[in-house]
Design goal:
alpha+beta, 2,3-Dihydroxybiphenyl 1,2-Dioxygenase, domain 1, 4 helices, eight-stranded mixed β-sheet
Length: 294
């Protein structure tokens, strides 16, 4: 009988203070094109309960969302990563909407494990097949990768560690240097260093949830970084700065929510896009975002 205790790396279970990554918000000029791209093309699900008129649309991706209010187009300075369950089916859907999106910036490049897609307004989305890299996530938004200045990664990681209590570190891979910030159960913010010229920030934002809500608020307030006192459960900040010099490193508005926010960990419906009226079977409309353990 072997009584040896298995060796577990318990640190892989730690979340840090950012306990939720909620959404990416970019304005879109045309809700019809947004429906064609995000719902018909990517195969995602429009939230059936909130923002169901013609001036905004919330799109469910596992436990995360895209928020798409109507207005002048906004473009993330970087790329949003998605995990989708079937890239072959994605390719068929993208081919199906291509003629409807002609004349926009819509484009895609197919790959075996990764498909690169561009929205009608230039937002880049990198679609991955499920893999061990993303754990048991079969449908989700595992990362948002933002452009950052050369030499800024360590200062960005330190900002998130010391100001927000996040798990963050500087890293390097075959594509270069980056700061990695754990943001929720299976999500990350990644700041990829680049020397490419950056367009002016246009007001897009991301939303996170914190366990320690007041501590980071106090630290941000002391440095004059709180940009909006939204309500009891929410505030916002705009700038990620070098904590030694005060230099602004990256501008990206963060909508910061507490765990007492009414929509914290809200359950989201995700449909199976392969299901049609011709293939309908009772009880099989929904798609599980979490893969079963083998």
């Amino acid at each position: 009988m072997n009584d040896a205790v298995p060796a577990f790396d318990r640190t892989t279970e730690d979340l840090g203070n950012i306990v939720e990554f909620g959404h990416v918000n970019t304005r879109v000029p045309d809700q019809r094109f947004a429906t064609l791209f995000y719902v018909s093309g990517l195969g995602l699900t429009r939230d059936p309960f909130l923002m169901v008129s013609v001036d905004n649309m919330w799109i469910n991706v596992g436990t995360c969302q895209f928020h798409l209010p109507t207005g002048p187009a906004q473009v993330i300075r970087g790329v949003t990563g998605l995990v989708l369950p079937d890239l072959d089916a994605l390719a068929r859907r993208l081919r199906g909407v291509a003629s409807h999106l002609k004349g926009t910036e819509f484009a895609y490049t197919l790959g075996r494990d990764v498909t690169e897609v561009v929205s009608p307004w230039g937002n880049r989305i990198r679609c991955h097949a499920p893999s061990p890299r993303f754990g048991a996530v079969g449908l989700g938004m595992p990362y948002v990768e933002l452009d950052a200045p050369i030499g800024s990664s360590e200062a960005i990681a330190r900002f998130y560690r010391e100001m927000l209590g996040a798990h963050a570190h500087r890293g390097q891979d075959e594509r270069g240097v980056f700061a990695h910030v754990a943001a929720g159960r299976a999500e990350s913010l990644v700041f990829r260093e680049t020397d490419a010229a950056q367009p002016e920030y246009d007001g897009n934002h991301v939303q996170i949830g914190l366990q320690d809500f007041s501590g980071p608020h106090r630290l941000l307030l002391e440095r004059g970084l709180v940009s909006e006192e939204s309500n009891q459960h929410q505030y916002r900040f705009l700038d990620i700065v070098d904590l030694d010099t005060g230099q602004k490193l990256v501008r990206m508005e963060h909508e910061v929510r507490s765990m007492r926010h009414p929509m914290y960990a809200r359950s989201l419906l995700n449909r199976d896009p392969s299901r049609t009226n011709n293939s309908y079977a009772p009880g099989l409309e929904a798609l599980a975002w979490f893969l079963p353990h083998v």
